[in-house]
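In the design runs reported in the main text, the only information available to the sequence generator was the tokenized backbone. The following block is the verbatim input for one such run; it is reproduced so that readers can re-run the procedure and compare outputs position by position.
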């Protein structure tokens, strides 16, 4: 949509300098912007890109000098990136299907759909399910019996919500997310076969959680697997049965969390982190990519490596590692020299 710089500044609560009548129709990066795009600037190292941009309008920090800056209009913000994100929603509003049930969808007669719900083609809403107001169910979504979905949720194609799963408000599930599949639990029998442990619990996803494509959250064997408010989960993440993920945690792609582990609030698990079962990760912990956790991690620490070490010890280890081969060769030479001296002394 088109919006003038002046109107945009009004919506964002910002002051502007320059021509407020300029119309903005898109957003872009500094180096790829065209005349009708809005850009933002925060990092001094990108100043050359700002001075060479073709954009007509930009969001800049308060006090940023405008010499050699070709922008025709400037909005001033304490946090330009945050203001830019808000501006994107005004300039390029998200696409939302109209409320209603598509003729090709199936909604059980005793399911309850609140006002403003949209159900896409070939989606299924099972018996006794409850869908909150304004929730969008895109095509090819499967919602089993007894599921409860809160208000303002977005369920993209390929999402499956198994029986009795609970979703809070404003939850976003991207394509292929599976919530409530059976936890991976087996016991060996006397004859060596694997006996399945019944998974009779549920999954609770609290408000403002977002889960990336093809990630899975398994139901609990007993009780509930819980993902707390505000947590963001990337693609291809596995959260096993009876795990509890704290508020505002970040789980990056290909993280795997074993059963009954606990992830503290605001913890960050980087890509391909592996956590076995019954592990506690403390509040605010940062786990570097490809780390293999082997024991509980105290709150406020940063760890890396396989097996994991405090990040300071891990850095020391890898600072020394390239020198190990030369040290071994030197040690062998010294050992041989000592042996020669001992032989000489015996004579």
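Verbatim output:
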């Amino acid at each position: 949509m088109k919006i003038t710089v002046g109107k945009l500044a009004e919506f964002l609560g910002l002051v502007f300098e320059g021509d407020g009548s300029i119309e903005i129709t898109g957003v872009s990066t500094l180096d790829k912007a065209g005349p009708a795009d809005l850009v933002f600037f925060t990092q001094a190292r990108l100043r050359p890109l700002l001075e060479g941009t073709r954009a007509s309008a930009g969001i800049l920090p308060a006090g940023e000098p405008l010499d050699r800056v070709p922008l025709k209009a400037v909005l001033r913000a304490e946090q330009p990136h945050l203001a830019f994100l808000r501006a994107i929603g005004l300039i390029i509003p998200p696409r939302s299907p109209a409320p209603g049930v598509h003729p090709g969808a199936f909604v059980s007669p005793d399911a309850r759909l609140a006002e403003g719900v949209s159900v896409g083609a070939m989606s299924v809403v099972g018996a006794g399910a409850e869908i909150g107001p304004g929730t969008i169910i895109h095509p090819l979504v499967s919602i089993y019996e007894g599921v409860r979905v809160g208000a303002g949720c977005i369920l993209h194609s390929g999402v499956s919500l198994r029986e009795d799963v609970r979703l809070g408000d404003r939850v976003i599930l991207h394509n292929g997310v599976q919530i409530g599949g059976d936890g991976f639990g087996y016991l060996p029998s006397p004859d060596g076969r694997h006996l399945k442990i019944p998974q009779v619990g549920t999954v609770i996803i609290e408000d403002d959680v977002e889960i990336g494509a093809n990630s899975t959250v398994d139901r609990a064997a007993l009780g509930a697997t819980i993902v707390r408010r505000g947590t963001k989960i990337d693609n291809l993440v596995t959260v096993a049965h009876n795990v509890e993920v704290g508020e505002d945690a970040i789980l990056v792609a290909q993280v795997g969390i074993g059963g009954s582990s606990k992830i503290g609030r605001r913890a960050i698990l980087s890509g391909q982190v592996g956590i076995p079962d019954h592990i506690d990760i403390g509040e605010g912990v940062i786990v570097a990519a490809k780390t293999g956790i082997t024991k509980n991690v105290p709150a406020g620490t940063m760890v890396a490596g396989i097996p994991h070490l405090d990040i300071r010890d891990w850095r020391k280890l890898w600072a020394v590692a390239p020198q190990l081969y030369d040290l071994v060769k030197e040690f062998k030479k010294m050992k041989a020299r000592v042996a020669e001296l001992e032989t000489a002394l015996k004579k």
